[in-house]
Amino acid sequence: MAAPRTLYARVGALILIGAALAVGFVLFLTSARLGEGATVLETYLSESVTGLDVGAAVRFRGVAVGRVTALRLAAAEYERPAESSFNAAFRRVVVRFAIDPTAVGQSAPSLEEAVRLGLRVRLASQGITGVNYIEMDFVDPARFPPNPFPWTPKNPVVPAMPSTVAQVQSAAEQILTRIEQAPIDNILRDAGAITSSVRAQLTDGDLAQTLHEVLATMKTLRDTIVAADLPGAVADLRGVATDTRALIGGAEVRATLANTAAAAADLRQAIARLPAAIAGVEQAVRTIRSTASDTQADIGPVLRELRATVSNLRDTTEQIRRAPSQAIWGAPPPPPTNRDRR
């Protein structure tokens, strides 16, 4: 009888321990719930929320700032107006979450300002576990504008943007759609035609002829190189280089270089003396110019007197030519009057 009682006691203890663990787990989950000061927000996701449950974390760049409080379908949460159709907005998922103000801080902007600056939420995954959470971040507001909705929200709304997986999936779907819409038959037909044309060119076309000419040219070039005795030419070039090196390093070249350096030094000295010589020449030219000016001033009166003498001599000669006897036996000229003296 003691053995069954012991077994029952163990089973009962195990059940109690399991219940205590379950209660502790529930308390652990509920202990992270936010108090009455939390701000409840909501967003609308257009993709599957598999892996996202109530109590999932809300993170801003990896930092936990809140918890998910509710997951509902938009068609069940908000009533569709009678005059409107069942558009894409009612196929979204309403995700409500509470934000702890102490985790955000007092310096954070208002919700409207943050949304205007690009605050968005998206679904994110924690790796291979399949557990998802809500991630908040600032992005380009022009790239992800807020999506309109035809109802009055019960809480302030933070616009959503597609998750990374959704963006990759959307891009892949667009690529597949373009591939499906591409004229594959025409592309294959054109590729076959191009292949046939290339094959024809390689076989009998201009390309084949060009290849044959290139091969013939290469063969001719090879024969020319062989006949040109390139090794001998290289040996001659080496000999010329050796002789040139010996000539450059010889005594005559060194003496020529030394003489050239001395001539360059003399030329530098002559050039240095050239300004003084030019100054002396300029001084001599100025002296000659001054002497010529003085000589011209002295010669002027002499030339005038000589011109008067020549004129008198011409008059005398003319008088002798007309009356030679008067020049010999004539009376002397009358004395000069007062007017003539003047």
UniProtKB/TrEMBL annotation:
Residues 47-137 form the Mce/MlaD domain. Residues 331-342 have a biased composition (Pro residues). It comes from the Bacteria. InterPro entries: Mce/MlaD. Residues 318-342 are annotated as: Disordered. PANTHER family: BLL5892 PROTEIN (PTHR36698), MCE_MLAD DOMAIN-CONTAINING PROTEIN (PTHR36698:SF2). This is Paraquat-inducible protein B. It comes from Humitalea rosea.
